[in-house]
Amino acid sequence: MFAIEVAGLTKIYGKGETMVTAISDATFQVKPGELVAILGPSGSGKTTLLTSIGLINEPTRGKVVIDGTVVADEGWRPGLDLKRIRREKLGFIFQAHNLIPFLTAMENVMVALEINHLPRSEARERAEELLTTLNLGHRLNNYPSALSGGEAQRVAIARALANRPKVILADEPTAALDTGNGKNVMTLLKKLAVENHSAILVVTHDHRMVEGFDRIFHVSDGRIAGEKNNLEVTGNHELG
Ligand SMILES: Nc1ncnc2c1ncn2[C@@H]1O[C@H](COP(=O)(O)OP(=O)(O)OP(=O)(O)O)[C@@H](O)[C@H]1O
Q1: Atom of ligand 1 minimally distant from the CA of 51
Q2: What's the pLDDT score for residue 230?
Q3: CA dihedral 93, 94, 100, 103 (to 10 degrees)
Q4: Of these four, 40, 180, 235, 237, which has the most CB atoms within 10 Å of its CB?
């Protein structure tokens, strides 16, 4: 079974003169454990692709299947609890990190675990482990206002990964980070892909990070122009 299946996915914004076809007839599958990069110029439709798969942005046409559940088929599938599917199966890492301002770094991560009914002591342990892996062991009890942009971004990443979601959707997760912390994030994503069989889609402009991916999708004018194996794109035959 695929973790993500997309068939004929099309997203059109607006009507008449202001109509924009942001994604046009995208069809692909991602297996559990695959780490996929999405590359493409500004405005090509990368974020729209992620949000349409991520149950945030209703597709205009086409089908989206997440971990075996058909979530969209010519619009949302009626009768589904989209919030619950989002909470249980998906992890999002977006540029705006949306941390809860009155909770510490630890508590921001623990909330995501407790909402899915993990006991408090286990939530604490998991939150501390993730934050420490992301070089935030010294910031556990800080509030978001006392964190740098890159630190807040990493807390948001820890929160998105906390429940070991089957599908992780990340929009420029390393853009605000220095090379060392960017590499930590990529290592953590790779680890989750391998150990938890999560399928991970990462929109990135960050060519420093591209070599860790299993596959690369090139988006151009709303179309997935080339889906190439990483080896062909980078020419690095030591990979994989
Ligand atoms: N809510 C919206 N309403 C109308 N048009 C939109 C909306 N969101 C995006 N678009 C348009 O859809 C197209 C694709 O946008 P999208 O944000 O998906 O591109 P992107 O590749 O993620 O861009 P960037 O790299 O700049 O973030 C663009 O032409 C954009 O202007």
Answers
A1: 18
A2: 46
A3: 40
A4: 40
* Residue list, ligand 1 pocket, CB within 6 Å: 13-14, 20, 22, 40, 42-48
Residue with CA at minimum distance from ligand 1 atom 27:
42
pLDDT for residue 240 is more than 50: no
48 CA to centre of ligand 1 in angstroms: 6
Which residue spans within 1-41 are E strands per DSSP?
Answer: 4-13, 20-30, 35-39
Alpha-carbon distance 75 to 113, whole Å?
Answer: 30
Query: Can you spell out the DSSP letters for 193-223?
Result: HHHH--EEEEE---GGGGGG-SEEEEEETTE
Number of H helices, E strands in the chain: 7, 10
Cα 47 to middle of ligand 1, angstroms: 7
Q: Are 62 and 38 in contact (CB under 8 A)?
A: no
**Residue identifier of the C-alpha nearest atom 31 of ligand 1:** 43
Residue nearest to atom 4 of ligand 1 (CA): 13
* 4-72+81-234 homologous superfamily: P-loop containing nucleotide triphosphate hydrolases (3.40.50.300)
Q: Atom 30 (ligand 1): residue with closest C-alpha? A: 43
d(CA 171, CA 208): 16
Q: What is the pLDDT, as a whole number, of residue 136?
A: 96
Kind and range of the H or E element at 69? Answer: strand 69-73
What whole-number distance in Å separates Cα of residue 68 and Cα of residue 80? 13
Task: Identify the residue whose C-alpha is closest to ligand 1 atom 7.
Answer: 13
Distance 51 CA to ligand 1 centre (A): 11
Stated as kind and residue range, the H or E segment containing 231 is helix 230-234
